Amino acid sequence: MIVVMKPSASQEMIDRMIRRVEELGMKPHVIVGVERTVIAATGLERNGVQAELEACEEVEKVMPILAPYKIASRETRPEPTVVTAGSLTVGAGTIGVIAGPCSVESEEQIMQVAAQVKDAGATALRGGAFKPRTSPYAFQGMKEAGLELLAAAREATGLAVVTEVMTPHHVDLVCRYADVLQIGARNMQNYHLLQAVGETRTPVLLKRGPSATMEEFLLAAEYILDQGNRDVILCERGVRTFETHTRFTLPLATVPYLREKTHLPIVVDPSHGTGIASLVPAMSAAAIAAGADGLIIEVHPNPSKAVSDGAQTLTPAAFEATMQTCRRIAEVMGKTMQ
Ligand code: PEP
Ligand code: MN
Question: Which residues in the chain come in under a pLDDT of 50?
Answer without folding.
Answer: none
